[in-house]
Every structure is written in C-alpha cells, then in structure tokens.
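Recap from last week: sequence in, structure out.
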Amino acid sequence: KAKRIDNPEYKGEWKAKRIDNPEYKGEWVHPQIPNPEYEDDTELYAYDSFGAIGFDLWQVKSGSIFDSVLITDDAAKLEAATAAFKVRAEGEAAAKKAAEDAEKAAKEAEE
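Predicted structure tokens:
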C-alpha cells in the first residue's frame, strides 16, 4: 500500500460549481400534439404462447439455472406459480443438503 501523506490544502471531495441560469424555465416537458389515427390497443403484447424467451445476462454464478419463467398479468396464476415454486425450491434445497452431506461423509470415510 502507498503511504498516505496529509494534504493541508484538501477541502473535501471536489464538486462542480453551480451558477445561476437566468433563462432556466424548469424541467422540459415535451409538447403533446393530437394524433387522430391513434387507437389504444390493450391486447398489443398479449400472446397465447411464447415460443422462446431470451435473457441477456452480464454475469451469472456458476451453476445458475433459469427455468419456469412466468409471464402473466393474472394475479391468481402468479399466486399459484409462487406457491408451486416455493415447494419445489424447498425440495431442491433438501436434495442439495443431502448430496452435500453424502459428499462430506464420503470424504471423511476416505480420510
């Protein structure tokens, strides 16, 4: 590590100076113009089935798995899927612990 030397002229972290702008009129709001051809379509992104789904991931831990992706706007389906996921996750956690315990026991038996 580099040795720290006190700087008597240090006044804290640098911040840009703020100067008044007499012509500032507030945050810009874009003008709304009428569009007579516009029609609101609530079913625009509603599909019976998605053939595939993609994830653009920057970094994933080794062994990460993505499955059972739910795309819905139905609260009942969400609740049912969440409950099913919790049951499955508990089972997977128990299976992982059992596998780790078996591996640990096998390792201890070798020693």
